Methylthioribulose-1-phosphate dehydratase (Sphaerisporangium flaviroseum), 206 residues
Amino acid sequence: MTQLTPARVLEAGGRLATESARFASYGWMRGTSGNLSEVVTRDPLRLAVTASGLDKGELTPADVAVVDPKGEPVTVEGVAPLRPSAEAGLHARVAAVTGADAVVHVHALNSVLAGHRWPGGVHLRDIETLKGIGRLAHDDEVVFPVISNSQDMGELGDRFEAAYDPRTPAVIVANHGLYTWGTDLVHARHVTECVEWLLAYALATA
Ligand SMILES: [Zn+2]
């Protein structure tokens, strides 16, 4: 069982900083928006999440906070306590419900546009890139759920759980952005890249 050590948290912080910089370079973390997380321990559930209010293109491994299943900060001796993102509670909920070990949240414009256009969910089928999210390239009806936004992470978590389909590793939050998840941060990035591409394709071909 992995232990909640400072070294483990800072290792996760390094991966979160690297992936955040890449997403920022895509223009998906404008301002200080968006956040990434990685499960550090499963029992009890603890996540390393990017700290609040920082430029996601310039994070260091120490720009990390550790949170519990409610998104509340957990003190780890040897790690300077930083304020976690307000959205950390939804990251923890996603990790708990899906079993994913990494969660990505970005404000990619195409996710917001697609959520606006199809508030009941974004439907896709028969397109090769669906294989990148673990679905089939043919005869597989994929729906990206769209849930309404809230500043209350408990409420948003309930909406996520109600809309969750284990076959689809993404949810759009209307007028806000996109949550995706994967077995690790690199997998979660691949999923995010494919979902964003699929949403751009849906918008362009509608
Ligand atoms: Zn957000």
